[in-house]
Amino acid sequence: MTRSRLADVLLGVLATLLVTLPLADLFAPTGAWARPSLLLVALVALTGLGLRALTTVRPLVVAGQLLVLLEGTALLHGRGHLWAGVVPTTDTGAAFGVLLTDAYTSIVSYSAPVPAGRGAVLGISLLVGLTGLLVDAVAVTYRSPALAGIPLLTAFLSAATNTTAGLASWLVVPPALAWLALVGRQGVGALRSWGGTASAGDQRTTDPAGSFATVGRVVGVVALAAAVVVPGLVPHLPTTFVADGLARGNGGSGGGGAVRLSTSVDIARDLAQRSTDPVLVYRTSDPRPQPLRVGLLDTYEGGQWTASRDATFVPLDGRLPGSDAVPAVERTTERIEVSRSTVGLPQVALPENAVGTPFAPGSWQVTASGLVQLTRPTSQYTVEYVSLQPEPGQFAGSVDPSGPLADDLAVDAAAGSEVRALLDRITAPGDTPLETAVKIQDHLRGPGYTYSEDLVDETADGRRPEEPLVRFLETRTGYCVQFSSAMIMMARAAGIPARMAVGFLPGSLNGEERVITAEDAHAWPELYFPDLGWMRFEPTPGVRSGLAPAYAVAPAEDTGTETSSPEPTASATPTDPTRPEGDVTADNQPDVTVTPTTTATDVVRDHLGTVLGVLGVLLLAALTPLGAWLARRRARRDARDDARRVEAEWQSLLSRLGDIGLVPGDGATPRQASRQIGRAAYLSPDENAALTRVVDTLEQARYARPGAPLPDVADDAHTVWRAALGRRRRLDQARALLLPAEGRRHWTGLFRRSSPTSVEDDSEQRTPVG
Amino acid sequence: MSDLEHDRRTTTDPARGASLDQVLQMSASLMSAMNSVIEGKQSVVRTAITVLLAEGHLLLEDVPGTGKTLLAKTLGRCIDASVRRVQFTPDLLPSDITGVSVYNQDVRDFEFRPGAIFANVVVGDEINRASPKTQSALLESMEEVQVTVDGTTYGLPRPFIVMATQNPIEMEGTYPLPEAQRDRFMARISMGYPSARAELDMLDTHGGVSPLEGLQPVTDAATVQAMVEAVRRVHASPAVRQYIVDLAHATRSSSALRLGASPRATLHLLRAARAHAALAGRDHVLPDDVQQVAVPVVAHRLIPTGETQMARRTPADVLNDLLQRVRVPAPTR
């Protein structure tokens, strides 16, 4: 029964499954959702096979498949909600509704990879099953495999647009191949049904599908190669997530001018700014650039951070305050050169522990907490700063709770109990201050928390906590301000002075320079250690934050008990080697172990896929011309006398003219062939004379008494070929130069010679024409 | 044909017979002499001379009054050689053609009286009006270039060419030539009606006196024989021979033909192609030569199938199709 068409069904199933491959980047663990999806697709395909064998009514087949898909889904995921254990009821629908809502929530709130909970598994397997059904219905039941590309593409694109770093470009190849095979099978089948139309007396039995299939294969392969290579060459914009896109939809305030971070209100507004105008352009010598600080906030009241009204002063020696660390701490001096800054007065973006005298005397001052402020606008400056690399032991020492830092130990009364409860849960009594800090940081960066600029008001059980910090700890959803606040409060509760720094992430690389936009606004906690001074920590999840400082990264065995946090592991594995350099943003900085300096080798390695792809395509493209060249060379070399040389020259000329569509009639003599070519190629009298010389020599070689010396006709043949080629369309020229028939014959000839089956090779009869 | 003349090569061969130059020269004067009588029929004249040089015989077929006999007579007149004309009628006997032994009272012995066939140029007028018996007598001598009467074999003079004319077989009172006998003629040509212009000229020139009257021979039998020798030496490469064989095979396997070309046809085709090449001054045969002579040489030997006849396709049409399709072989390695 041809209606069932097993091969097409299998190809459809294969394409559907391959198209879901990118989902592995989106949902983890893969096994959880892959098995039910596979099961449902197979079920739908089998049902289709069976129903098509039974009936020709297509809608019936599709309806049957849909029923089976729904029943299969119900059996897989709705156990306990089925009537008699089999029949889905409204209860099943309601249960599925809850699961799907749950799936939706986790999809919009998590960045990839989303943990594949029950809801997600249900959603994915249902969608994959539906894709399989659509593909099967369109490609097999309705026999339009080309249209099946649409559901396949939809499934592929929805996965592709939601992955963090963009898909590896090769991922498009397997499903595309499966789909092309599907289309190709159908096309060849349709052509075969035309039947042979070989003319009488012609011994060649031509399969009408043969030549079309060859053209089709070439088109398919070229399209596929282009699909892989071209995206690698075209620069693309940074990828964002569905959730981000939804959250930021209302931002969009452009406009230049000075940017000043609000030191009292939250940073969400700046984060939501989609303006791409640079706030700051700078170069840095630091291989791991730090965030740049513009403000310090130390007082928390009613959910708002404010800066205490510090007295400002100018140091007597006119130098920036630098670091408070004891001399024993290992340190390096780094430098940033700001070439353009639009940060408004009095703020100035500086790294921690800035030293030296970068600003003119009288144009700056320092607050008591060590924040540098400008009094005169300065858009260009160069600052050196001390980058500390402390040993874990140097974090020891406690702070006098009643000392000058007492204000930085104040825990908010409204949130105190929740903060302490959480602190007790994640830290052990004997922890050192560093261990405590790292545990707090890692807890907040862990998978339990969701980064989102849209704050959630309600907790899972429907309460609406008033205090923002409590709300954050309950809903576990927020952005840098909430994460930092939580860490600060917990650190303070643990006896470590802490305050909030406001500033910018290091921005994105643009050639040698880094560019900071308003979107890079960030807040992070600074914790005080007696021997070191204020040290930066990074509790905000890696989706939108800097790296945690090296000293704040716990050794591997100490990292939390749950699955690893998305950062830094997610960014440590370069998932997309073809990603353009300018796209490197703060959230996918190389990991600590990778040297972040961009060298030529890095560029090559990052673009290895593209380079290899381009090389491969070039190599493929050069293969046929190379074959043609080899064939000509061999013919010339093998020619034992003038006659054979002339003959080879003529055959080569004919073959090349054939490439541009100039084919003399079957029974044409050389002379007739030359007349036909001369007419069809619009040869000028000179070129025609060259052609006549070639043909005359050929006639001498073929038909006259052997032995007479013959002139070399290579030049004349070349003249004719160039002239004929020059008068064709560019497309034909390119095809003739890239895919010469001589080259194809050369390679197929080699292949045939190496395969023992083709004893009676008919090329002897076919190739010599005219 | 004009395209074949662009490469007149003056290759002189000092061996026996005429050089190609002489062939060229002589055939040109022969052609111009004939063209002065036969108005506007250059290709027919050329084919006739080709057949003469290829040692073949010519069958002229057309409706009455188109100049068949005139062509045959003109060729005979142009060559200073023995020319005999036989008017075939239903009561013509074989001995009238071949000759007869009569008893000579003086020598008291039988003496052979040669028939009309003993000449260099024999014009057989309306050959299909004679009975098959008489026809066959002529055809035997054509093939063997000898006559056997009463056990004695008499050779015929060289060069020897029979030019027979016949009316199309639909005409009344004719005995159509059997295939086997048609096969003996190297070529069949049809005169065709002259163009209006040529017919007008004909009225002017032929109105008064027959143009044959003033025609002087331009060559003689020995020269023609030397030319024939030269033609024999024209080189036919293996590729060309292969092509001729391929063509013959194509006619035999063609579904449009009931009877294809005979091996004799293959032989005639090669000889005619040689002569055609020589007339173009070339010392080797091109596939183009073969194609040019193929229709006159082969077409009259082919018998179309019923379907082909129903489709109103002549054997010449079928042959032209085959010429378009059969590949010209390149030399084998």
From TrEMBL, chain A:
Residues 472-541 form the Transglutaminase-like domain. Residues 561-576 have a biased composition (Polar residues). Pfam families: TgpA_N, Transglut_core. The keyword Nucleotide-binding does not apply. Keywords: Membrane, Transmembrane, Transmembrane helix. It comes from the Bacteria. The keyword Isomerase does not apply. Residues 555-596, 749-770 are annotated as: Disordered. InterPro entries: Bact_TGase-like, Papain-like_cys_pep_sf, TgpA_N, Transglutaminase-like. The chain crosses the membrane at residues 120-140, 152-173, 608-631. PANTHER family: PROTEIN-GLUTAMINE GAMMA-GLUTAMYLTRANSFERASE. This is Transglutaminase domain-containing protein. It comes from Phycicoccus flavus.
